[in-house]
Amino acid sequence: MNRGGVVKGRHGVAKPMIQKKICLLGSFAVGKTSLISRFVRGIFSDQYLVTVGVKIDSKDVEVAGETIRLVLWDLAGEDEFAKVNPAYLRGAAGYLLVADGTRRATLNQAKVLQKRVAEAMGPLPFVTLINKCDLVSDWEIPETDLQALRADGWEVIQSSARTGEGVEDAFASLARQARVKRPQ
Amino acid sequence: MPEDLTVGRTEGAPALNASDSRMEHGIEALLAGEGIMVLRRLGPKRFRVEGTPPVWASQVGEVPLRTGTEFDPAAVFLFLPYFLEDAGSPWATDDAPPQTSDIWCQTLRNGEYLHFTATARRMGGSEILLVRALGVDFEERRHVLQKARELALAHERLLKEISKKEALLHCLVHDVAGPATTVIQCFGLLGLEDGLTASARELVNMGSSEARRQQVLLRGTLDIFAADLSALEEFFTDPATAPDVLRSVNSVLKQLTASFAAKGITWSLVPEPDRPSPWLVAGHGGKLERILYNLLENAVRHSPVGSTVTIRLTDEVATVCVAIDDQGPGLDPGLAATLFERFVQGKTNGGSAGLGLYFCRMMINRWGGQIGCHSLPAIGSRFWFRLPKPGAGPDPTAAPTPPKH
Lengths: 184, 405
Fold this sequence. Notes:
Oligomer: heterodimer
Strand content of chain B: 15-25%
Distance between the termini of chain A: 21 Å
Order of helices and strands of chain B: HEEEHHEEEEHHHHEHEEHHEE
Helix content of chain A: 25-40%
Strand content of chain A: 25-35%
């Protein structure tokens, strides 16, 4: 995890680094932890390891010439054993809504989650990731579904934690939106 | 945890004697051994490590946390600000109840990670924060959750695989059934021809009959693969939605009225006396009726003209047993054990594909029940099944045991 709480200003004067809390939401086993692992450490593992509670990581990114520390909250996947607590999003500058492109039901669950979050937290910037796009032969979500989401104003990116496709783009997009819309 | 824990001792408290001091060190070692770090709140964003820190304290921050280290725990444990804000005022008064956080996961400097919880409480006038690394018990619970999730994923994959195979089978059956229909129509037209010899007409009839049987078999095959899929799907164990087996029996008897009448067979329904309705069981109403239909239709098919089919319902505390007795020729002992397998037929198949009983077994097992059959010496045969009552749950260790009556 990256640490340190200051950056050098234009004249070499230390100033506090801007931090933005970003949450990852989605059904279980859609690849939330793997996306963070790819983004923060650049690694990927095929092994599925269940996340319990909250797992927090951070990474510094450059947005418009400014260094922002993204504090990434990987929330345990939702299923019949565990429900996501929307209160975890308090103070979040945005969130990534993750679905598994090889399991169509996870997109429906993502829509339900998004609604719950919107009701609990109000409008927050979010980016939807349809993950595992490297698994072409098992893909279950047709392009028309994604077009329908985009027509509703959702930003939808197909991603793969395995290959890295779309991962940087998604976090960068959210960082840009978070920086502009919800200063902490 | 004892209330006189010395970490809560305030300035000006009586000095400890040697025995108290040994106890204090013992408690500190115990807490450290349990993976608990004791922090005393000194002020906003300022806490001090009290007593012996646990082993993980050397790996969790940028610098090792030692006895007496003063730091802002929010900078080390990123989840803590959220918890402390949510916790309200656990330190406001002596009688304020302690607050414990949800679980969070933290990566250590060595790349490993640990799961933690925090408890904020006031003790002896001190504001205490206990940060605990979760140990073996937690890992076991996590392992169970991991296995449950893996099974859920495997179940999803299995359903998907079966769906693909079913689609393929439908295509194949459709391709085979098309020509069979043409053959039936051709035989039909041939049968209308004048001047057929008796033996030619017999051959036409035989061909037509066999082509029709082929169609029945194809339809049965499709049904059973559809049932394979549905057997993996939802059923009801909630009393509000669980089916009433007595009502299902009555419904099926009504559907089979003509079949009973055609052979002059009567039926006798014997629910347990004085047992009030409903007779709720785990399962799915529509499929339960199909099971009963298969078993009762089977009984009618093998019953002699003028005989009686008896249906008994027995309440067995946690389960309900349904037994269907006929007065037919009985079962070949060698066949009874395999009768519920796929494509197995009795002595006289009577045009069935040997899939009806397989369907019954598949569904009953899926709902946590048992099914079986045996001969009734000098009477006929008995087919029976037993289903758990809603909420009772199956006994996975129970061997199939025939009903006692």
